[in-house]
Amino acid sequence: MPTRLKRPPFWRHLALTAGMIAFLGYLGYSAVNGQFGTDSREDMVIDMATLEARSAALQAEIDSYRHRATLFDANRLDPDILDEGARAQLSMAHPDDLLVMVDPSSGEPKYGSLQELSGDQLTDN
Predict the structure, then answer these.
(1) Cα 27 from Cα 34, distance rounded (Å)
(2) What is the mean pLDDT of residues 92-116?
(3) In whole angstroms, what is the distance from residue 21 CA to residue 105 CA?
(4) Which residues fall within 8 angstroms of residue 76, CB to CB, at 6 or more apart?
(5) Fewer CB within 10 Å: N-end or C-end of the chain?
(6) pLDDT tens, residue by residue, 21-51
(7) Bridge-partner residues for 109, per DSSP?
């Protein structure tokens, strides 16, 4: 009884080889042009620099807010500075305060608190 060896078809080897070459081509393309490839590395570096600058700006803003919050600490709060800031915000003054009105264009004083102002002069300024 003769035995005959069955050979696998040659196209199976060619199909496997072609599939592997196509897969390696895909991996190579992704390594160069993909989202995390070498070509997009420059874009990621630019994005990182932009985000670091934004983070630094936000950190400076946070530090500013923290500093302003510590100024309201009861142990550190200076009543004179608080009173002066409140009167400046509200445009109010004590009768004992010396006021000097300054012309914004020239920087020269217009009136002092020792001079009496009429109602028209107050509304003009």
Answers:
(1) 9
(2) 73
(3) 78
(4) 70
(5) N
(6) 999 999 999 999 888 888 888 889 999 999 9
(7) 102
Q: How far apart are CA 68 and CA 71, in angstroms?
A: 5
**90: pLDDT strictly greater than 80:** yes
Q: Tell me the pTM.
A: 0.43
Q: Which two tokens stand for residue 20?
A: 């592997």
100 φ/ψ angles, rounded to the nearest 5 degrees: -130, 120
d(CA 97, CA 113): 8
Q: What pLDDT score was predicted for residue 99?
A: 73
- Alpha carbon distances (Å) from 9 to 2, 22, 54: 21, 21, 62
CA atoms of 124 and 93, how far apart (whole Å): 18
Q: In whole angstroms, give the CA distance from residue 52 to residue 54.
A: 5
Q: What is residue 60's three-state secondary structure?
A: helix
Question: Cα 118 vs. chain centroid, distance in angstroms?
Answer: 49
Model confidence at 121, pLDDT cuts 50, 70, 90, reads: low
Residue for token digits 């020792």?
114
Could you tell me if 62 and 70 are in contact, meaning their C-beta atoms sit under 8 angstroms apart? no
